């Protein structure tokens, strides 16, 4: 990942970079995506100052991943009837999690959901289609990021 003149390691999706993103393909969209807002685990990650709207992750926060559901690719309150991702995870991936504008407006069924900028696993193992960095890099970048920030995935 290049930010200005700095380069940081990052993890991308297990399906590589894709120009034709589909739900469940594990691909990271080949796209320019704005940062919309973020979530953080108050008990695990100090969000610090950010120009992005940041909300604490509660036990009832989920993200719907069912293309036919009316709340597809949106946050939902859990328990929720359709399949969803639990935002308060047992691992640390979403201790700091920023929502990218992939497939938000307009939302297209099956074009991918929950494309986030979040924390990486040790060893930078692949994501499910997101972009991930270390907690140290996220903490360094977060004060610089705003809704005008564009994350551009290129080949």
Annotate the secondary structure layout.
Elements lengths: L1 E2 L2 E2 L9 E2 L9 E2 L2 E9 L13 E3 L4 E4 L10 E3 L6 E3 L9 E5 L15 E4 L11 E3 L1 H7 L8 E3 L3
Parallel strand pairs: 3-4, 5-6, 11-12
Antiparallel strand pairs: 1-2, 5-10, 5-13, 7-8, 7-9, 10-11
Strand content: 25-35%
Helix content: under 10%
**How does the helix and strand content classify structurally?**
mainly beta
Q: How far apart are the first and last residues' alpha carbons, in Å?
A: 12 Å
Low-confidence blocks of residues = none
Radius of gyration: 14 Å
What is the tally of beta strands?
13
Query: What is the overall shape?
Result: globular
Count of helical segments?
1
The largest sheet is: 6 strands, mixed
**Mean model confidence by pLDDT:** 95
SSE topology string: EEEEEEEEEEEEHE
Q: In oligomeric terms, what are we looking at? A: single chain
Describe the structure concisely for a colleague.
The chain has 155 residues and is mainly beta. The chain has one helix and 13 strands; from the N terminus they run ββββββββββββαβ. The longest helix has 7 residues.
């Amino acid at each position: 990942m290049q930010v200005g003149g700095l380069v940081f390691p990052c993890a991308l999706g297990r399906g590589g970079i894709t120009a034709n993103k589909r739900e469940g393909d594990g691909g990271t969209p080949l796209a320019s995506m704005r940062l919309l807002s973020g979530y953080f685990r108050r008990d695990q990650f100090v969000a610090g100052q950010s120009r992005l709207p940041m909300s604490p992750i509660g036990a009832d926060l989920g993200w719907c991943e069912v293309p036919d559901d009316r709340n597809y690719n949106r946050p939902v309150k859990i328990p929720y009837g359709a399949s969803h991702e639990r935002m308060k995870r047992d691992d640390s991936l979403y201790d700091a999690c920023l929502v990218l504008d992939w497939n938000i407006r307009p939302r297209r069924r099956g074009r991918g959901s929950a494309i986030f900028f979040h924390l990486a696993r040790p060893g930078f193992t692949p994501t499910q289609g997101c972009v991930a960095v270390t907690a140290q890099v996220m903490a360094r970048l977060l004060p610089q990021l705003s809704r005008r920030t564009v994350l551009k995935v290129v080949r």
